[in-house]
Specification:
It is a single chain. By secondary structure, this protein is of the alpha/beta class. It contains 14 helices and eleven strands. A five-stranded parallel β-sheet has the order 2-5-8-1-9. Strands 3-4 form a two-stranded antiparallel ribbon. Strands 6-7 form a two-stranded antiparallel sheet. The longest helix has 20 residues. The protein is globular and about 70 Å long.
């Protein structure tokens, strides 16, 4: 486990252009490996900058694992991958104590969770018991094992992938776990030009071994701290609360957004504003991140006429700005 990093204070007014340039450099480098998915890369990076965790749901083979590996490599972060299967145990994720004859005591052997970037691959193929091993780590940035609380390295970023629920052998994530993910994105198929470049270009795994670090850990932690300083006006908060109130009053939803969901939306919008080189949030920032922050937290009621996350996003985006 790496030692805690010191955070350098950034002068937001004078350094915001440099921050945007650094972030754009990371996105540019990642886009050379993940072709045709610049917007999705920016969303994943915004999730990290907002100190959240990312859920990617899509078909196998569209680049979910590669995206996680690329971000870790470009940012110079320690990376571990856990393949979730039906026989996975919490100890396989958190670690276990083993008796040491030399010391006549137990020695704790950390699991893969003690890393800066964790890829929980096909998380919905594991049983709920194994899935629950991530809950404390994602919320508290620590794990409690055998009566001891152990902090996790910083930054700590979980990227979980899941296959569509109609595929065989999946266990749906409960609402409590879905709520721990700041954002949910889909990569989808590449466009025609990107797929042709994929066919004719270098192997993606080979490119991963040649990626150069574009941002230091200290710089990343500083930018994460800067996200909190992005200004959200009173009018902007009125718009945010109008969205939250709509989800709670509408009969089309089984339940509305929680206060944690509202904070997730605000923090994501602040990160997006900073990535665009602004020190304040616009309604457009909320609208950009809204489908990825809100849809996995909401469920349509039985009386709703439409089904699917697309209808949820359309309803929320149609809410007028006060």
């Amino acid at each position: 486990m790496k030692a805690q990093q010191q955070v350098t204070v950034i002068d937001l007014e004078n350094d915001i252009d440099n921050i945007k340039a650094s972030i754009d450099n990371v996105v540019d480098n990642a886009s050379q490996v993940i072709l045709g998915k610049r917007h999705e890369i920016r969303l994943a990076l915004a999730c990290l900058l907002a100190r959240g965790h990312l859920l990617i749901e899509d078909l196998p083979g569209v680049g979910k694992t590669t995206l996680a590996h690329v971000l870790a490599a470009i940012l110079g972060l320690q990376y571990n991958r856990v393949q979730f299967t039906s026989d996975l145990l919490p100890a396989d994720i958190l670690g276990v104590s083993v008796f040491n004859r030399e010391t006549n005591g137990f020695t704790f052997h950390p699991g893969p969770i003690f890393s800066q970037v964790i890829l929980a691959d096909e998380v919905n193929r594991a049983t709920p018991k194994a899935q629950s091993a991530l809950l404390e780590a994602m919320e508290e940035q620590q794990v409690s094992i055998e009566g001891a609380t152990r902090p996790l390295p910083q930054p700590f970023f979980v990227i979980a992938t899941q296959n569509p629920f109609y595929q065989v052998g999946t266990f749906p994530l409960p609402e409590s776990q879905l709520d721990r993910f700041l954002m949910k994105i889909n990569l989808g198929y590449p466009n025609h030009e990107a797929e042709r470049a994929l066919f004719t270009g270098r192997d993606r795994r080979e490119m991963l071994s040649h990626i150069k670090t574009s941002m230091t850990t200290e710089e990343l932690l500083s930018i994460q701290s800067t996200v909190k300083e992005i200004h959200a006006s009173s009018d902007l908060l009125d718009y945010l609360q109008a969205i939250i109130d709509f989800t709670r009053r509408s009969t089309g939803y089984a339940f509305g957004l929680s206060p944690r969901g509202g904070l997730a939306l605000l923090h994501s919008a602040k990160a997006w504003a900073l990535m665009d080189g602004r020190d304040h949030v616009l309604p457009e920032d909320i609208q950009t991140v809204l489908p990825h922050v809100a849809t996995h937290r909401l469920r349509l009621s039985k009386d709703a006429s439409d089904t699917g996350t697309d209808s949820i996003a359309e309803q929320l985006l149609a809410i007028p700005i006060p």
